[in-house]
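Worked example 2:
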Amino acid sequence: MSDKKYQVFISSTFKDLSDERRKALDILLMANCIPAGMEAFVATDNEQFEVIKKVIDLCDYYILIIGKMYGTVNPATKVSYTEMEYDYAKSKDIPVLVFVIDDSVVLPDGKQEKDKIKIERLDNFRKKAMTNRLVSTWKTSDELIGAIAISIMRAKNEINRPGWQRATDYDEASLRREIMELQKTNKNLLKDLTNAESTIASFAEQPNVAFEECEIDIETWYPSNSGSGIGFKTVQVSHTINVGLPKLFSIIATEMMDVKISEIHIENTIESSNLFSRSFHIRDKQLVKRVLNQLKALKLVTSSWDEKKSVLLWGLTDKGRKVRDDMILIRNPSK
C-alpha cells in the first residue's frame, strides 16, 4: 500500500458553512489526506487571493461546498471569491468535487441570501458547478460528510494525481544516480544543439556555389515570323544561375527524409525543384558529385555501396538530420 498522501483544498463561503467545513476537515484527515482549508485566511482582497491561488496550485483535489450564500464579492470582477477559487482550480485542471445543498432545504436568514443580485449570481454559480462529473447534493451535514468520504475515495482511485510522499521513502543512492544520468543526457543534448547551430551558422558564411559553372537549358516556345500563318519552334537558351549550398542541402535532405538515394536520383531531384521558373537540366555532370563531396566534408551526408543494385547510395548522417530539421523550423524573416 502506498504511503502517498493527497492534498485537498476545501472551498466554500465561510460563516454559514463553518460547521460543515470543520467536519469536512476531519473526514479528509481520516481518509489519509492533507486538508488545505485556509480556515484562518479567507480571501477578502486580491492580495490574499493570490496567496490562496498558490495553495490551490499545490493541491491534488479541490472540494467545493455550496450552501445558500454567495459570499464576499470582488469589487473588480463582481464575482465572489469562492467562485473565483473554483474557476482558478478548473483552469489548472485540478479535479473538482462539488457538493451542492438541495433547494428544498430551509435555512435561517443568516445562512441564505436576501439580495436579489446575489441570489441570481449564486443560482448561476450552482448551475455552472453542477456540470462537473463528480457532483452531489446534500440536505444535512451528515449527508454532506458521507458524500465527501465516498467522493474522495472514488477520486483517489479513478483520477491519478502526484500526491505527496516523505523524502525518506526514496532511495537516496538511486536518486543521485538518476540525477547524474539526467545531467549527462542534458549535457549531450546541449552539445548536439551547439553543433547543429554551428553548422547552420557556417552555412550563412558559405559563398554561393554549385551552379556557378552549371549551364541550365530552358526550352521556350514563340511564334515564327517566317512563312504563311503562325508556326512555332523550339529554342534552347542557356543560362547560368548561382544557388547557395544551404538551398541545395535543403532540397536534397528533404528527399532523403528516411531513405538513401542514388546520385542520379539526387540530380533529378535538383532538376525538378523550383530553383528556376521553368524546367531545366544540368549540363555539368560533375556538379552533383562536387556538391555531395562538400556536404560529406561537413559530415551532413554519408555514402554506402549497395551490392544488390550495384550503385552508390547517399543518405543523411545524424548531424545532417538535425541540421535539416533545424532549417525547416527557421522562419523566413521577410514573412
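The longest strand covers residues 215-224. Residues 305 and 311 are 6 Å apart (CA to CA).
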